[in-house]
Design brief:
About 35% of the residues lie in helices and about 15% in strands. Bound molecules: adenosine-5'-triphosphate (ATP) and magnesium ion. This is Aminotransferase class I and II.
């Protein structure tokens, strides 16, 4: 992954709770930045990175992810105190998504649709990473150049907020899939599942986890490398138990017919 340096805080994107911002960087690109100093903390960035890269490995379009280095002078004179505090608490590495200019949010009422292949893979993906934020109310799915782009994976992998109870969640069927906004088009889940299982294996997941900066995951109890192994164990167990959430997703889809 590339690292860019933030040169200008351009705009606050106030839709969600995490206060992402549109930032210009030293490569002259614009990025939607998730800040480490925001309410949900660094774990939301871990979810965005790990789940986002898993989605990309599954063939879904996820905007390029980059590390965004924030230095102490960025936004120092911003008129908004909340933004100044956020940037001050985020000095160092943050996570940026390539900004897709002119993209619009997926809207079924406006006639947007998805192919069975993409919809089925998206359903499998979100069930695997346990992302509840892909609903009609909160689509987190951008249409750009006629392609569906998956953004905002920050709520995925929620088990990492409580490792004590994580073990019991790896095999969950993810009934929340019933509200997935692409479920109506997901008519080929068995094929998507077979493809997903052939694409994701331990080496792929290990490679993705290796990119997570130490500072985002280390704690007094666990070193960064121990924590990466915890994630790997969890994800491998979820993969081994994928029949549970695949069957649930197929049942939920059939119920819509
Ligand atoms: N890569 C992108 N290109 C263009 N617009 C984007 C991009 N990423 C996000 N946006 C816009 O910014 C909004 C907020 O981004 P995002 O959904 O990632 O965060 P959020 O919803 O504020 O987070 P949360 O609700 O989880 O706190 C999106 O709804 C979308 O309109
Ligand atoms: Mg969002």
């Amino acid at each position: 992954m590339r690292t860019v340096r933030a040169t200008r805080y351009a705009l606050a994107l106030r839709e969600g709770g995490s206060l992402p911002g549109l930032v210009e960087a030293d490569d002259l690109g614009f990025y939607v930045v998730k800040f480490r100093g925001a309410g949900q903390g660094a774990l939301a960035l871990v979810a965005e990175l790990v789940a986002g890269e898993i989605g990309r490995r599954l063939g879904l379009a996820v905007p390029e992810l980059v590390f965004v280095d924030v230095d102490p002078v960025l936004g120092r004179n911003d008129p908004d105190a909340e933004i100044r505090h956020l940037l001050k608490a985020s000095v160092g590495l943050n996570l940026g998504l390539d900004y897709l200019p002119g993209s619009i949010m997926f809207d079924r009422q406006a006639g947007d649709t998805a192919s069975p292949e993409i919809a089925s893979m998206a359903v499998w993906f979100d069930a695997f990473v346990q992302n509840v934020d892909r609903t009609a109310r909160n689509p987190n799915l951008l249409v750009w150049h006629r392609t569906l782009h998956f953004i905002d994976q920050g709520a995925a992998l929620y088990f990492h907020h409580n490792w004590q109870t994580a073990a019991s969640k790896a095999e969950s069927a993810f009934p929340e899939v019933a509200k997935h906004l692409l479920l109506p088009w997901a008519s080929t889940i068995p094929e998507a599942a077979a493809q997903a299982r052939s694409l994701l294996h331990a080496d792929v997941l290990r490679d993705i986890l290796a990119r997570v900066p130490d500072a985002w995951i280390e704690s007094e109890q666990r070193t960064a490398q121990e924590r990466r192994n915890d994630y790997l164990d969890y994800l491998m167990r979820r993969l081994a138990a994928s029949a549970h959430f695949e069957e649930e997703a197929i049942r939920s889809h059939d119920r819509l017919l």
